[in-house]
Amino acid sequence: xxxxxxxxxxxxxxxxxxxxxxxxxxxxxxxxxxxxxxxxxxxxxxxxxxxxxxxxxxxxxxxxxxxxxxxxxxxxxxxxxxxxxxxxxxxxxxxxxxxxxxxxxxxxxxxxxxxxxxxxxxxxxxxxxxxxxxxxxxxxxxxxxxxxxxxxxxxxxxxxxxxxxxxxxxxxxxxxxxxxxxxxxxxxxxxxxxxxxxxxxxxxxxxxxxxxxxxxxxxxxxxxxxxxxxxxxxxxxxxxxxxxxxxxxxxxxxxxxxxxxxxxxxxxxxxxxxxxxx
Length: 278
Known about the structure:
- The chain contains eight helices and ten strands.
- It is α/β, with parallel strands linked by helices.
- The radius of gyration is 18 Å and the shape is globular.
């Protein structure tokens, strides 16, 4: 049923769903799925939430590693987002990636879960245009697969605001905290949650700072390449992944709002620090 109420939310996916770009491994990651869980819990008291996502995983790995645990948790709402790590690999087959996503859509909806997914921006800052056609192809197949199984689709592709650098983290591949906030709002709108609307797709206020140009821009490009692109390429050459040896940050269903001194915690306002229990 659109809008809930929901009692069990399970998120499947890769680094975006894990929350990279919104917090860090020291203070903890928040991310759009955590933010969506807070929105759900604000209207569905007692909601419990699990996040099975692990960075670096391709769609086949998400299916192999996360689908069975997700089904065992019997979610009544679930999100499935994967495929960008496939797009980044030299060999890419949109049909194959979409087949893995569709298998997850089918299994979760057959068990009675309301499922949501999203389309990907076709011009990621770190990729530019070369991989845009891959993302266009994947998005179309995601829409088709979602349509066959009644899966809600947050259309994150095609909005001008997506190219605003303030929505992206310094690595240019993961969303910033503001970007994760917008993704959560997009998925909430796709699920027709109470209080959601399409304002997430609107432009940001004009930036106060001027864009970098000339030598400063060149220096920034070199800094990005040394900090992010170089290590990523090195992992690819060694056949390694950022997710090697990592497990899900939240493998079990836990309350979204932890109890404080025996009383229910206050619900956070938008933009507040995450209250989600570890």
